[in-house]
Every structure is written in structure tokens, then in C-alpha cells.
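Sat 14:20. Reprocessing the chain from the morning session after the first attempt stalled halfway. Input below, unchanged.
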Amino acid sequence: MGGKLTFRNIVTLVLLVVSLPAGYAEAFTIDDENVRTGQRPKPVQISIVRTLSQGEPELLVTAEGAFQSHIQAPDGRRYSQLSIPGCGVTAKDIGYPAMPFKGFFLEVPYGVDVSAELVGWSVSSLGSGFLIYPKQPPIPLPDCATCEPAFEINKAVYATDAFFPPSTVVIDEPGFIRGRRVVFVQVFPLQYNPVTTELLAFSSLRFRLQFKGTADKSGEARKRRLATKQSEAFAKDLILNYEPVKESGGQGGLRGLSTGDAADYLIIVADELYEEILPLAEWKHKKGFITRVADMNEVGSTASDVNDYIYQAYHTWDPAPSYVLLVGDHDDVPPNIIEGHPAHDECDPWPGPHKWPSDQPYTYVDHNDYYPDLTIGRLSVHTESECNDVVDKILTYDRDPDTGDWYVDLLAAAYFQDDNNDSAADLYFMETAMTVYDFLVNDLSDFTGHTALCTTHWPLDHNDYHFKSYSYYHRADLNLIRWGESPYPDPVPAWIVNLWTSKTQATSDITTAINGGAGIVQHSDHGGKFKWVNPNFTVDHVNALTNGEKTPVVFSTNCLTGAFDGYCEEKHNGHTFCFSTGDNNDCLAEAFQKHSDGGAVGVVAATRVSYCSYNDLIAHGTYTCFWPSYDPNHTDSNYAHSWRPAEALTYGKYYMRIYMGTGSYTELEFNVFHWFGDPEMMLRTETPEALSVSHISIVEPDTAMDVTVTVTSDSNAVEGALVAITHPSIEQDYWTGFTDANGSVTFSNITFSKDDSNDPNDYDIVVSAHNCIPYEGTIFVYEDVGFCVKNNSDEIVAWFDNLGNLFLKGTLTQQMTPTASANDEFRFQDSNSSDLAIIDTNSGNMYIDGTVYQNQSSPSPSEESDDFIIKDSNGEVVAYIDDSGDVYLKGELYDYSNP
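Finished this time. C-alpha cells:
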């Protein structure tokens, strides 16, 4: 059936559609058993059919089937839970019929109003007799875990003779993601009438967005100003109608360790920690991120001041920050305090009104939405010593990494909670952690697995255990059918049960694994501010770790372990719950971060209560960002969106939103999960490899030239390596680029300057790539050259300047008879063509038969000798090589074996 449909008459239309001749609509099946029999329908497909003249996209959504499971509710009735592959499930509100939806983002022009118009569809009735389960609040955590939440159903809605949802296409209010104006679209392939108990299925829906008003063309320039390589990769993966935008390449007024209105990487630091953070800031600058350090004396004293500073930087600086690092505890650099909490019943341990700290609103700078526009992290340190320790850990991991094989060791720590002793999990802890384990260890076969797994009842009394009986949405799409053939993973595989141990042993297993070296630590269970509940692991356990430089990235998927503030809350039952233990108020994430003899290099943790299914999806989305094959039903990409844990956490939040939809719980999860660490740092997933970098090493000043840098590792071209050429004091000289598929990047028509200090270490070149040891080299600038030697590529490999200094690209070998190389060499000879010294122009190595004499105030060759003499512009001798192979210098020898 085809036609035009508006939201105002959708209910009327679908009632008419049911009366059409049988077989007119495309086939759509619903089955309780289609997963078991291998006939599970394919995920919902979305395609852009065409783009109209005003840029309005027309889309086609197709679905071939759904399946249902059944759940016995507290009201005594047996309900159906519906699921469609590739879809989440949501409703307008708690208590409404929960219906599958396909969620995605579309980009829309600046300044226009957006609506949707259905232009074609195929629909059929799946019959009546359905009782669809209503949307419920999430499972309460943490200390009410044994309390069954009250069953919620909106009786008025279930007594309404109408189809839910009333619209098959729902569009949220426009928001912004790093300069791109977007709308979140939800398409509902099923509609349900709770009175007639009929279910309608749309096997295809064709609709287009309509734009009303005149597009603001300034939006394109704004997108270009804000675009970065990282943001474009994110947008390409997230936005269905993504079109690339060329980065403006904004240079700003000042480069390097910026003192002006320009930064890729903004650090806001407590005044007393300014000096301690500079080594990290300087490294980020050299690595290729324009870095600006602002202390709180400049920023202000309140969260509002911090927000205003970041807001102004984002909207007015060129370039605008992509990464923000807050350095200080909650009293030093204050977080936002968010008020309110979506509590629904007495079983909820955090009834509103409630307050909790969050740095995430600092990232919502582009609109009144909760879509992050930049990536944020915090070093929650208070003293100079703490800051030094944390900075040292980050620099070791990122700049000078340990070269052991521990990066491919995974620790999965989890709890099988069975409080009612029915051999079925109460929550998803074990399942989520072991999905990560199974993928990395068994599917990828790249990781060595370690576990710390315990259960409510030990020792075990039988072998028949089951994962949680009902599902959060998209769970069956996560390849969790690896545990069995049922739609919702049922039996716990024996190989997992065999890994379970006592709680005491599991705690010991965490310590053993981390001290031995674990690259990734995944914990799934309840959490408190100072501990993982099961397996129990506290701040004291963290402080006793001795893992040294083997610092993992920790994913603490639970509640409260990131509660870095220190106030008390009065609970609804009159008891006071305090986040304080006197002098030591560090939460678990802070303890991991601050520990000076190990701990972690970064931690994902929640600052307050997080909810099961929501945080499970965040975890799955985070690993899908690292490895798209973790959830191939979500993405068909072959490449990681990002290896940065801070960016992967943001990706995981969007992933959760796509399957959970909108609502207060979704927004809470965006705000509650934090990254404690460097927001730009990449996760290492193998032993770091050395980079081989080919680049010009010596250049003439004030001469425009093209500079090509080629990067290989183990003789293979490295694509996507970040190359940065910077000067420590000439701020305007700053060039960055990424290598292509051949491992090369060319900087065109750049000019090198010479500063007044005549420092030979003029320009830094740093090359960094995932899982590689950064390359750090130097490009030397010469001036006032008395004599120079070049190779066949016209690259200078040695020179004498007018001050009598000798600069070598390679090394000098003394007390050895000069021996020419096979092809390329320069010979210093006397009048009899006898060799006094030789420079190999391939390596820049110099060979002499004598000794080097430096700091000769007035080099004076003998009138009788037949020397090779270097004079300055005034005709004065500044260096010479005599017939014995001795080298006399008015200045010094600069021997750069690795320039």
C-alpha cells in the first residue's frame, strides 16, 4: 500500500489498512521460536532512497519479522515482550506498552523546522490476543537489589481503544553534535491496540523529512571550524546521512603551548598544580595537539565559571577545544551539581530530590541538549605529589611505555547474584563481563583471559545455572546467543561456571591479575564509593597493589565508584548515607588513579547510582567502539571508531541511547559515567612497537620547502600516524598531519625559522600511532654556514658554521683509518688527494684518523701543513682538518646519532 500519511491521521489510516485484501502487504512474521530454529529475522534495514532539492532526505525502513518472549508479571498476567533485531524498545512513559523502535540520527540544516511525512508503507495485521508488557523503571540499585520493584502499568492507556505508539515516526527536538545540527529519529515497525489486543506490522515505511524555513548558510562555515579528524570519524559512524566536511584548519593567533585563544587540548588546572601539569601539557603540544593551560585564577572559582570558560573557548577559539582535562579534586576544580532523580517507588535507593556531581555538562556547549561536543577527563588530584604521580603514569603509558606483553591480558571480575536461590541470575553482571571475556579471549583470540568470578552461594550445589530470565532490549542482538539458542541467553555455559570460586578467592584473584599485568580490567557488579561489592575490592586493596608501570585501563561498570565528591545524603528511611571517611575521602576510581606504585592509568566509573541494562549497554557500546565486530548487528565497520577510552565511553552512551531511547534514565546515564584520566590517551591492545621514521633532518632557514615524512613499523607502512613538527619557542611554526595508506604525509611549502638562541635543537618532530612507541626526533636548522655536505637527495648531512661548530647527522668515529663507503661519500683531501677525513652521506657518519679538539679560541693551522681549512665570512679560520686527521674547532662538535 502506498500513500501520504501525516501524524494527525495515522490512527485512522492504520485502521483502514487492516481492512485491505489479505496478502497485499509484504510478509512479516512473529515467532516465539525463530531464534531456536535459526530463522531469526534479519535486523531492520534503513536506506536513504533520495535527497530532495532542499536537502530533505527520503528514507526507507524495512523489517521482516519480530519475536516475542513471555514474562509473568506481579499482577498475575502473562505478558509478551516484543523484540526486532537491530531495534531497541521504548514507550512514551513508564507504564505504556513497550514497543520496538529503530533509532538513528539524521543531520538537518541550521535554522529550519523539521517534520516527517510518510509517503509509502506496507502493513499487515498480526492478529489479536497480544498482551504487550508495559515499560518499567530500571532495576533498582545498589542496596535494594533484593527488593522487587513495583510493577507499573498505566491502566488508562491500556483501556484506550487506539494504537500505540500513535505515530510510526517520531522526531526529537534538534540538537547539536560538534557543530552538526541533528535530530534523533525513532521508527516503530509495530503498533499495538491494548483494547482490541491487535498488533500491526509495517514491513516497510517510506518517509521524508520536511524542512520549513530558510537554511542558515553560516552553519557550514561553523561546521568546518569545529571539524576535527576525531569528530568527523564519530559523525560518520553516528549520523545516517553524514556528508564529510573539510576541516578549516584554523590556525589561531598562537601555536604550540598556547597562551592565546586557540587549543585542541584545554587543561583547566588548580592554581597550585600548574607546574605539575606542564610536563603533560608540553607532551601533548609536541605530539600534535595545540595545548592551552588555564589555572583557576584565570577561569574563576565556581562550576558556572568553568562552564563559561569552556563555552567561550568552544564558540570563539580557533581551533576550538576537542579535549578538556580538569586537574584537581572537587574542591579545586568544581563539578556541576545536578539536582533531581527519576525515582519511581520506595524500592529505589535514591529517591528524589537528589544531587550528584558531574563533569559531563561541561561538554554540552553547542545547544540545550545532552549530546557531548567535546571529550572530557579529570585527574582528581589535590596535592603536588599526587599530580606528579598521575602525570608520570600517563606519560609512561603514552610516551615511554613498558614493552611487556601484559597489554593483551584481560581481567573479568563479576558476580552471579542469586539472592532468591532459584539458580537464575537476578541481574546481568556475570553475563556482561563474560561477554567481554568471550569476545576478546575466544573470538579475537588476541587476549589472555584472567577471571575473578564469584556467586551468592558457594560452594555450588549443582551445575544448572541460568542467566537472567528476561531481557533488556538489544540484548539478543549482541551475539549473546553464544550462550545458547534461546532468544534470551538461558543456560550459563559450563566453562563459565567452572571458573566460579569463593568470594575470598575472587578478591585475591583481582590482586594477582593486576599485579601480574592486565591491560584491561572489566568489573560488573554492585559498587560503592570505596569498593566493588563482589568480588569485594576496596580502596585498601587498591593501595596495596604493586603493579608498577603495568597500569591497566579499568572499566568499573557499576554504581558510585567514581563519586569523587564528599557530602552526605539523607535517605528516604531516615538513615544518613555519607560519602566520607574522615581524612581519606578518595573513591575507588581516585584510589586507582592516584596510587603511586601501580593502580590504573585511567578509569571509567559512575559518580552516583547507575542502572542495570543501561550501564550494560554502555559497556557493550564501549567495546563496540574499540572493536566493531563485538556487535556486528550495530555496525558494519571494519575499523575502530576510536581507541581512546574517553571517546569510546561517549560512543557507548550514544549506543545506549539508540536502544533505550529518550528519557530521564538515559540522560542520567550520560551524566553519571565519567572518565578519570587523560581524554586523548589511546588504549593499548598489544605490546608497543617501535616506529621507523624517515624525514629530512637538517634544513636551511627561511626557505620554503616540501617536507615528506614516511612512517613504518616492522617494515610495514603505518596509516593514520599523527606527525607533528613543532618549535619550542617559535609558536607560529606548528604543522600536523596524518599519514596515508603508504605511511607518508607531506607538508607543503613550509618555512623553518631560526631563533635568536642559535640552539641547534631547533624543531621537534613527534610521530605517534596506536600501539606504537612514539618517535621523537629533531629537525636542525643551520645558518651562517661556512661549509656543508649534502647527500644525493640534497639533504644536508654535515656542516661547519661561522662559529666553528661542526654538526653531524650521524656519528663520528675516531682513531680509524678513513674508509670510503660503497657509493656515497664526501672526502676531505689535501692537495695530494690524500684523505684527511670522510663523511658517509647515506648515514651522516664521519670517519677520521685523529682527534677532535673543541673550543680552540683561535684555530691556527701550520703554514707548512696541507690542511683542509674552514673560514668565516671575514676570512678568519674557524676550523680545520690537518694531515694527521685531527679536527680543530673554534666551537663544538654536535654529534646527533638520532636527530
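The CA atoms of residues 311 and 711 lie 37 Å apart.
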